[in-house]
Amino acid sequence: MEIIELINVKREFKILNRREGIAGGIKDLFSRDYRYLSAVDDISLKIKKGEIVGYLGPNGAGKSTTIKMMTGILEPTSGKVLVNGKEPYRNRIENAQDIGVVFGQRSQLWWSLPLKESFKVLKEIYQVSDKDYKDMLDLYMSLIDIKNLWDKPVRQMSLGQRTLSDILAAFLHNPSVVYLDEPTIGLDVSMKSKIQEFIKGLNSQKATTIILTTHDMGDVDALCNRIVIIDKGKKLYDDNIENLHKMFGMYRIMKICFSKDVGELDYDSLKDKAAELEKELQENFSGDDMTVSVDEGWIDILMNEEDVSLMEVMNFIQSKQHIYNIKLEEISTEKVIKKIYEGGTIL
Amino acid sequence: MKKYLVLIRTGIMDKLNFRVSLIVTFVGNIIYLITIYFLWKAIYLSSGKETVNGMTFNDTMIYLVLATALFNMMEIFLVWYMGNQVRSGKIVFDLIKPIKFGLYMFFGQLGEVVVNFVVIFLPTVVIVYIVTGGGILAGKNILLFFVAMILAFIINYCINMLVAALCLFTESSWGINIMKEVIVSVLSGKSIPLAFFPNSIKSIVELLPFQAVYNTPLTMLINNNLSVENYVKMFGMQILWLMVLLCGAVWFWKYSLRRVTINGG
Q1: Within a 13 Å sphere around the CA of B40, how many CA atoms are in the beta-carbon half?
Q2: pTM to 2 decimal places
Q3: What is the ipTM of this complex?
């Protein structure tokens, strides 16, 4: 059953065309010269109960605008958003009862109050029964250690503790959908994986649908079975991660080392070498998207095996220079995503 | 109902966290009161009369001291809060609570006002009572004052809510807030008792909602021999404005939300 459905959703913003300088500023006061920007342009989407969907896109792609429409804060210019069968912007209060939201950069908790007091307030606002409240806390305790957070005022927490607290708060009333907007931003590696584990645990225990926007591919790999990529308001990709990799399966990275000891090469000379190599490769092979970069003493060559043969490239390089070491790597999710962002409508 | 009580409780706890702010308010008030003491002393001296516009120096001072206390009690930082939330984008969190925004804010502010009532207004009334040797009568006026004060608080809240909604459009609260404060403090009789206004202006001001915030409750507290007709007129005015402003605030807030884009992220 679909819990969230977007049907040809569009959202435009009206922006005043501003002029330059003070004189321009004064003219602007009376100006009616607007332009329209489509933040979200004809997006359709269906999300099932219990799914964790990674909602990805470069900065300014329209991710937050979509989330705001799903939470009921913004109304689409045209099209329809359905969450639990209802339009959230027409039933904002009702919808709010059944969703949780975390923004990694802001906290919804009461700044000066200890966490337990914030939770008490949320419990009453969402009208959670004593039993459900206790069950939820028990579940939290079983998944993660929160004892040291309990009596701490939010303003005294570290960023990691605060983010964790915000996630706890978002799940407290057992909502059917939780929107996580860059939940691991600015966190250290161990806190990141702790939070990922915790989110996973909650999702499997409570079958909560989770919409995750992030720029951290670690989050995506750890949590999402499905990803949706948008850019400039348009949907570019909507499928599971494996297919994303398969789609770019022909891409390989060949890592080459020209020296016995990785440490003895300095970055600048490698960089020059990489640039030179890139030029030579592009002259001799047909693949236009062959790129060469430097990675800690290694030279990385990104190539599409549909266009060029790996062996030929290797032979070509070998004929010029002695190769000490060689590695082949599958392309990472991060690199795939980067490719999509930069390629625009590659699909 | 329980969710509203918990909001009041949170407001109280929030307020009590800022002990220093209570002390600063207290000291600031003393300085303000000393200033107006000398100002009005000079006004009465230069007039050469015991009573000006039907009020003695003592009457005026009692009125102004209580007006200041009432102002400090009812002063809510809704506009300031809203400006902040809009700029930082945190307004999102207020809007995704399963509770109407107006009520959500109202009960939070109410908690703070309860604290203010206990730590600012009540002591002031007691001090004035002792210093003036019974300058404030204790009788049915206390009860009537209470009713008028609650109505005044709601009216004041609606005015603030209307101005706060403007923040959604301008994304800056400082200017509008100052403008609101000046208008309210002059036209409500908070800075100058309405008796001192010229008759033509006074008759206009008496029709506006602002005097229902400070002048009405204070008059009821200080004056114990108003006619029934007077009470009916004053309460009638309060209730009328309350309904008008409440509808206005609710409508304008809804309208603004639909028009406005929310910042950030």
Answers
A1: 24
A2: 0.80
A3: 0.79
